[in-house]
From TrEMBL:
Organism expressing this protein natively: Bradyrhizobium sacchari
Pfam families: Exonuc_VII_S
Assigned keywords, A-Z: Coiled coil, Cytoplasm, Exonuclease, Hydrolase, Nuclease
Assigned EC number: 3.1.11.6
Molecular function via GO: exodeoxyribonuclease VII activity
Name of the top EC class for this enzyme: hydrolase
Catalytic activity: Exonucleolytic cleavage in either 5'- to 3'- or 3'- to 5'-direction to yield nucleoside 5'-phosphates
Record gene name: xseB
Protein name: Exodeoxyribonuclease 7 small subunit
SUPFAM superfamilies assigned: XseB-like
Cellular component aspect of the GO annotation: cytosol; exodeoxyribonuclease VII complex
Quaternary organization: Heterooligomer composed of large and small subunits.
Compartments reported by the entry: Cytoplasm
Residue runs in coiled coils: 42-69
Length: 83
């Protein structure tokens, strides 16, 4: 785990960040991590969570819905309203 904390969170892909976050959660749930290390990896987990949320917002902003005409033929795309 120590080597992972050296990787800049802002450079991680969503998949890599979520994988590391899951590892941190499992380690914390096991309860076998010393207190000081628990605090350190918890902070890392918070940074990873924020990174995942940021990447999801970016992906949502790029998602388009396909627009169609009256006969159902695709006519283009429009921003997807996810509210």
């Amino acid at each position: 785990m120590a080597e992972n904390t050296q990787i800049d969170v802002s450079r991680l892909t969503f998949e890599r960040a979520i994988e590391e976050l899951e590892t941190i959660v499992k380690r914390l749930e096991d309860g076998k991590v010393p207190l000081e290390e628990s605090v350190t990896i918890y902070e890392r987990g918070e940074a990873l969570k924020r990174r995942c949320e940021e990447l999801l917002r970016q992906a949502e902003a790029r998602v388009d819905k396909i627009t169609t005409d009256a006969s159902g033929q695709p006519t283009g795309t429009a921003p997807l309203d996810v509210q």
